[in-house]
Amino acid sequence: MQQLLNTALGGLTLGMVYAAFALALVLIWRSTRVVNFAQAPMAMVTTFVALVIVDAGHSYWLAFAAALASGLVLGAVIERVVVRPVEGGPEINAVILTLGLFIVLHALAAVIFGNRYRSFPAPFGVRGIEVGGTTIALTGFGIFTILAVLVTMGLLLLLFQRTDIGLRMRASAFNPEVARLLGVRVGRMLTLGWALASVVGSLAGLLIAGGSLVHPGYMDSVVVYGFVAAVLGGLDSPFGAVVGGLLLGLALSFVSGYVGSQLVALAALVILMLVLVLRPGGLFAQTAARRV
Amino acid sequence: MRRRLHRPTTLVAAATVGVLLLGACGAGGRDDDGGGGDGGDGGGGATAPGVTEDSIKIGAHFPLTGVAAPGYNEIPTGAKAYFDYVNAQGGVHGRQIEYVVRDDGYNPTNTSSVTNELVLEEEIFAMVGGLGTPTHSAVVDFLNDEGVPDFFVSSGSLQWGDDPSAYPYTFGWQPDYEIEGKIIGQYVAENMPDAKVGLFLQDDDFGDDAEKGVRQFLDDQVVAAERYTSGNTDVGPQIASLQAAGADLVLSFNTPSYTALSQLVALKLGYEPQWFYTNVGSDADLVGSLLSRFSEGAVEGGSSSLDGVMTTEYIPGVDQPDDPWVQLWQKVWDGHGEKGKLTNYRVYGMSHAYAFVQALQAAGEDLTRDGIVEAMEEIGADLEGPQLAPFRYSSDSHLGISGMRVVEIRNGAGEDLTPVLVTDIGDAEIVEDDSGQDGDAPPENGVPEAP
């Protein structure tokens, strides 16, 4: 019973991180129709920025804020400088470009920050909470992770559904030409989309790093699982991304605990294939008419 | 979405074909210039590849970058420092040792290509200390087909030495995982007969060989065996299942990063068994530096982080600064090392470099590839060195060090729980070592003679 509970709780926390990462992918997808595979190393770089600040003796929260801010800047700069030249061409060009960025950022991080494993602090302790004499596998940081992702999802939903700027972002992604004719500054919307997505990605990076070990490759599996989670929920839906992340986190945790950890990656791929075959639009896709 | 994914697949396929073609070109080159030069068993004169009147070129593959690099990338720096030290004293039989290290990133595909380069382009005389089970498995056939001495593989897998007829040029070095499992298993069976034993295993040869050894003695006591996949850092489900099975003693066969991860997860779960880590995963300094900075002082920093944990030991390490071998290593490192301090990984590198220099001494002035292999089979079991127990080299076995002792970590140093115990794979009995290897000292000048 305790094992069941602990495996579920572990899956829940991990699922929330996948959810955050899926949210970042969904954001870029919604605002530019590109799947950004460089999201993982971008988040890794900002996490290392936080680590440098913590190492310099500053508080965790300052580092946290700095990582999110550098995520914002990094996202905007990458969109402006690297992705902009290929925008307007076939979307596959941008996707391949993000794969290239993936490798470049990795190599740069290895040169600048080094290749070894380093521990990353957590602000709320790494011991499980005691309930009635037994320890359950939920740390203070785990609760923070869950709350942070839920709040982020809420804010994004508000942004896209209730604000003018969200509407303009959706319009520029959906049909740049028409949006431009209607007076939307499409370029700025694209930059904003990348910047916001990069902030959310940075959050995911910080959440998975907290109380664990980081090295330049530590986000690599997360980009795969985050992508599966995003597809599971439908690439268009922030709510779907979170639900997809949770389902995936729980499923993988149970596979790892009760079947075998060597099957985790395989299970994720099976889920991805099943979704693509049975519900290509994901569990929460909106209208099929949008998929041309 | 599906359409989007097709194109990258094509690209990957194209890249793969490209790599294969490149590989094929490399193999073609080998046929061209390998026709006459190899073989190396011509009687007199130093005609072997990589050997001249005044130099010997040797190679190695190590993960200098990537996830396996921490710790392991220090091994070649230690070996290089020792070779430089020997060179400064005139080399071996008047030959300077040139040591070429290539980065394989712990990726078997890279290991194949860097080994091709080393053997075909650099024309090394021998591979020395190539690291890793999956990585070295990818090149062991090639090295043996080419007749390249493949000495002192940095891995405890059985395959390097249990069947010399399959790999006549390959020699192991560290104690294999099976005898480590046996020695740990017997210690637990004798001293903790009531313990409920959980096994935490890396899901490859490492965990499998060790489990085989442990179960020889503990089959009845094992309540759970959990495996983790290297690369998947979430070991929560595995540790939770050991906890659920009620294990109060966990025998862990894992790499150092996973020692840190398992300790963290145990904190999270409130799980406090007695931990017993393999030698491979118990470097107190490395694990301590990983665990050092978690908040609230929940984890003790530095080298005391593994206090009370049990492990094994087969060469003296930096926690024993008074040991004459460690004093030699310190002198070598101070004189010829790079930046940074002496670590156990550097000591490991120096220890196998020492054994290789000894092998060169034993092979004599007329150095050939077959000659050094024959020499190792003849006198390998008598080699002296930092190892606490003798090697098992003979014409029937190319397995390395034959034993180790069980220690408990206190303040970062190992306190002996047993004398040095030696054994062999299979049913071989575990006995106390009487070779006197433990407690010997290096020669005055720090360069071995032929035994």
Q: Indicate the overall shape of chain B.
A: globular
In round numbers, the mean pLDDT of chain B is 85
Radius of gyration of chain A, in angstroms, nearest whole number: 19 Å
Total tally of structural domains of chain B: 2
Most extensive interface, residues per chain?
Answer: A-B, 52 and 47 residues
CATH H level of the largest domain in chain B: which superfamily?
Response regulator
Please tell me the CATH architecture of the largest domain in chain B by its name. 3-Layer(aba) Sandwich
For the largest beta sheet of chain B, what order do the strands appear in spatially? Answer: 2-1-3-4-5
- The overall pLDDT average of chain A reads 86
H-E order of chain B: HEHHEHEHEEHEHEHEHEHEHHHEEEE
Count of all domains of chain A: 1
Structural class of chain B, please?
alpha/beta
Q: How would you characterize the overall build of this protein?
A:
The complex is a heterodimer of chains A (292) and B (451). With 292 residues, chain A is mainly α. Helix content of chain A is 72%, strand content 5%. Chain A contains 11 helices and 4 strands; from the N terminus they run H-H-H-H-E-E-E-H-H-H-H-E-H-H-H. Chain A has helices at residues 2-32, 39-55, 60-83, 91-113, 140-162, 164-174, 176-181, 186-209, 220-233, 238-259, 264-278, and strands at 118-120, 128-131, 134-139, 212-214. The longest helix of chain A is centred in the N-terminal third of the chain and has 31 residues, at 2-32. Chain B folds into 2 domains: 55-175 and 318-403, 3-Layer(aba) Sandwich (Rossmann fold); 178-313, Rossmann fold. Chain B is globular and about 65 Å long. The termini of chain B are far apart. Classes of the chains: A mainly alpha (292), B alpha/beta (451). Chains A and B meet through helix 1, helix 4, strand 3, helix 10 and helix 11 of A and helix 1, helix 8, helix 9 and helix 10 of B.
